[in-house]
## 1
Amino acid sequence: MDARERGRAAWLFLPFIHPSNPPFIPCKVGKTAVNVLAHLHRLDRRWLYLASAIALAVPFLVRARIPMPPTQPFLVTRRLYDAIESCPPNKVVLIDSSWDMGSQAENEAQLECVVRHLCRKRVRFVIISVQRAQLGPEFAQRAIEKITAEPGCERQYGTDWVNLGYVQANDIKVVIEALCRDLHAFRPNDVKQTPVGQLPLMQNVRSIKDVHLLYSVTYSPAEDWISLVKGQFGTPVAFGCMTIMSPYYHTFIESGQLSGMLIGNWGAAEYEALLGRPGRGTELIAFASFGNCIIVAAVLLGNLGLWAARRGRREGK
Amino acid sequence: MTATTLATLVGAVATFAVFSYLVKDNAAYRLVQQAALGAAVGIGIWIAWRDVLRPMWWARIQGAFQGGRAWSDALWLLALVPGSLWYFQLSRKWFWVSTLVSGLFIGVAAGLAFKSQILLILPQIGASLKPINPFAGPGGLTWASALDSFNHLLFLVGMMTTLLYFFFSLRTESRLLKGSMRVGRLMIMLTLGAMFASTVMTRMAYLLERLGFLYAKWLAPR
């Protein structure tokens, strides 16, 4: 390929160059690739959005899948699984399901896989929504009713699980303190407005002492669960959080203050692998792999572009 | 057209209107943004009444007056007094009245926050002190104890150099301090890299969820 052909090939990249950039001029022999890369460095970000959307749409439109090699589950996922496995029959798992459409993208899969495990293991559980997700009880109810209709997961409302609904928490510390001490006084009725005293499950569940594990699944679980439920009452706490928030909570895993954590859809997919039943988390993470390829390519091209731009500036001097 | 189909159509149109912002700010985006805000406030008020105020406050008072509950439940009416004090914040002249209740709330919140922070941070300090001697374990020197020691050493170096970066952010000629601060900066950059990757993953999940909605509910409903 001679210099003219190289220059012509480089013009193929022209649609990806922002109009505000200086016009692309194929320069000296051997410099064309560097020139293209230097312009890619200043690529309009909207092209990246479009490429990501197309890449993520591919698995919906064609049955293409990126093969995912089986991996060892992350330690934090394994710990949550083990914590539920070790639940004694006289205790329940309390789930703070404070998510709605705002964080459904990752929290739904995190709730589903844990509830599926609880149903299979015949562990009773209580749902409550105390953080800022007013539609949390509705979303949780729908997700759980779907799972309890699956074969092998049949559980009865009132006997095996209860949804205590939404509690407004302007200061979550006050709410946590109250529910830990007396759950019946804190929440007299369930989501269907049935008095909690009339629900068979709640006869033996009165305070945090009857709870084996607290699992908070929301965009960003409140650290007050750790300090009050684990620190004051000694009940283990686990989180299911959005991936964006996960770096913050790793310190609590290291110190043993958190008994497990599901990180985004990846955590849910790992949990489903432990259960031996692929679900929503596995599906979403397989789909996201297409978008991740675009991001990896963009990071590589961006760095190459930065290198090329610096080189161009250096040689221009 | 059923209500579900209409709701799905509205959802699809709203999704496209929100994504149109990526091209350029426009009236459709702003309309959906304002509508979402209005709907969230409306739903919030309704749920606060349905799930909180009615069952936990109004039903008790109503029951006391109708004879279904103990007369003492009627005392919940008194909750209106401190509640209504908040509205004095709207008056310059009577603002001081609202400080009676806001002071009470701040006192409770400060007390609980103090306890909460102590219970949160003290275990963190304890967990930062990690053994780095590979011979200290019950089984003496093994591969596992050596790896643990290396891991703990890495953690300690990361923690100390990061702290140094913030505490000694002054001009210094000491090579040791300069090198340590450079390592600290590297640690911070690694952490920020991890946070950036987490952000990308979350944004990807949001986009995927919307694409899933458009495909499974709108384009090709089962």
## 2
Amino acid sequence: MSDWRYRIGEHKGTLIAIAIFAVMFTIYLVNHPAITSNGFSATAVANVVNTAANKGVLLALVAVAQTLVVITSGIDLSVGMIFVLCNCLASAIVVGSGWQTALGVAGVLATGLLCGAINGLIVIFGRLQPIVTTIATGAIYFGIALALRPNPDVSDKFNGDLGDAMMGRLPGGIPASIVALIVIMLVIWIPFRRSPIGRAAYAVGSSEMAAYMSGVRIGRAKFVAYTLSGLFSGLGGLYLTFTTASGAASLANGSTYTLNSIAAVVLGGVSLFGGSGSAIGAIFGAFAFRAIGDLLFDFDIEPLWQSLFQGIVLLVSVCIGAAQLVRVRNRLDLFG
Amino acid sequence: MSTGVANWATARLPRLLRRVDPAVVTAYACIVLLLLLGDLYNSSFLSPEYLLQQLKVASFLGVIATGMMIVILLGQIDLSVPWVVAVGGMMSAAATAYGPVGEALAIPFGLLCGIALGFLNGIGVAYLRIPSMIITLAINAVAQGLMVVHTGGFSPQDSASIAMRFIATGDSVLGIPNALIVWALLGAAAIFLFTRTTFGRALYAIGNRERAAYLSGVDTQRVVLFAFAISGGLSAFGGILLAGYASKAAQAMGDAYLLPSIAAVVLGGTSILGGRGSYAGTVAGVILITLLQSILSVMQMPEAGRQIIYGAVIILMMLLYGRGRRVQN
């Protein structure tokens, strides 16, 4: 039972992310105008928490998508575009009731999977750099989204009941979106992390060469990571449709989510060089990033500054999280 | 006699062919093919006026792609292009509003802002060792935030100075557009930089293997820093030209230039892994992309189709030239 120190060391990034989130979210709640003006009543707090949860889950899902690729020491600049594509698709096909809606949801998720799989296949068999590949496939996915929804459109046929259910609260005031997120992680992430393929993905990220020499099937591990990444972006897009009940092929939305997913991953303690970190950390990173971004709202600062403020948060977090300078033991290591 | 010629040809031709990059030849072949296709579609496609107009439009992309190429030669990438372009355009237009002194300093001021942002990128990459795609994305976000604050979220009202309009839209000698002359001068400078200076040699050396370059006595960190600063300056200069062309700056004016500038460099045979590529290839890539855009817009292809075609063309060309090595080697 004396291995607690190693266990903490292993999850250091995730624990730091949880701490940052706890501090930031507490500051956010305590200063929120809707709560202070209502004298900290339970309903006011529950309302604010529910809104924050619904907004945070969107970024959290995309951040998990980014994590899956970053673990293999790649980067996915198409997550935001898959997110937008699935949003547009969901606004068109998640319609009607019962079976038709279920079929639509399945179609959206299959599209996400397919987009991720295409990224994976090009990176693995085309042996192209993940960054250029995903910039290019991102353009293709955005093009398809634009073809589906040339104009932002509120879908009147969209199944609103499902959206309301996913945005609402369960008995006891627990946000349904958080429960959904936990279920998704239990069903997809935990089995992946514990499976040989998940371990292989981490091994590939630490050192592709060493993984190959040890007989790890690197192609399969990367393929599963990229494909699941597509699925999570697709889930994010589906969730966006629940919130807005509309589809918009917005380039700005796509690039913002891509960018913020990287910030969330870094805040969540996932190494951008691959091989370490956890999607759980990235989720807390995402919620923390949202809380920091929304702090400006608390203090009644002009919304104009929000974009600059988030940019600076992003810059500072990646500078701290990604600077290799602090890891260098030998001057020559710098030039690896 | 004829066998002698044949012998000479077989001996010389392979050597000549070996020196020519197949990617560059393919790119130029594609340009000819596109021109012929365009001519079939519309007979005014091969007229001198139309071609000059295309070259003028191409020179905006050419300026930006030159900066991108310097960074890609290092094996890095500059994703801050969209908002550095916008910063260049907006800041020079904003300076114009400050009387005659501002108008005179408009272009240098816009350039300086771009160089400063590029400098920040360079410090992040060279000294803090942050992966270039991440620091440049972050700087892009900061630049966007700064411009949103500067303009108040509205479309900026400042208009471009006379000098900016002159270099972007005027034509001085023999009806050749000034923008094209600017690009030609810049291209000549770039070729000189790449082939005749130690800085250029160092760019290729670092792109091939930074560790080896460092051990050979190259101050690699300073070279990387200056490369990013030049790239930032050229992006901003592209923005200044664009603002001059449209006679004012706009919020998202740079968004349409990130993907094409990377595509132009990569289509021109420059390795995305760094260390290999020629400026002639980049020129071919820029013209190719511009012609492709022009033909797609003549055919009234919607934006959606254009995005899909861009992405597909980049992946296709990369699969032909830009593949990495197998792990086991």
